[in-house]
Write a structure and sequence with these properties.
The protein is mainly α. It is 60% helix and 7% strand. The protein contains seven helices and two strands. The chain has a two-stranded antiparallel sheet with strand order 1-2. The protein is elongated. 16% of the residues are buried.
Amino acid sequence: MARSVDNPLALAVLGLLMERPMHPYEMGVVLRERGTNVRTNRGSLYDVVAALEREGWARARETVQDGTRPARTVYELTGDGRDAFVRRLDELIRAPRREYPVFLTAVAYLGALGPEGAADALADRAGRLRDDLARIDTGLAEADVPRLYVIEAEYARALVQAELAWVEQVLTEIADGSLAWPDSEED
């Protein structure tokens, strides 16, 4: 996959175009409705669509105008785009990559917060993770598409649930003293 389109948003756009032709505004709406983890804004979405078009992986199909709204260009996936998308997906699904979220780095230094500070920060995180689970559950319940189109939300839910379970376990260990904090020594 060309460097200019080797990113999660490009993959998401190619995936949407496999479902059906659509214009970039609609793509953004669908991505938000499905609760995907792909960060998007209007500018980046249009930039990615333009890059896909330059690569020959998407092409303008038609321009439509709905009432007084601005004209919108509907894009479709090309055969080369489908082939490139399938190759990249196959690679990403087959070969695990170590991805290092910021939380992993922060948790390595949890001890710096002290037991009370760590417990407070983790309790706050647990609450936010519960909120995330509720949002994902709502999105999944409201999704009116085949399950295969929202399977990534199920995976995201599993990751959030696993993180929440870990955070709650550490909170328990802090509370019962089984996660020992070394005595701090003043120099």
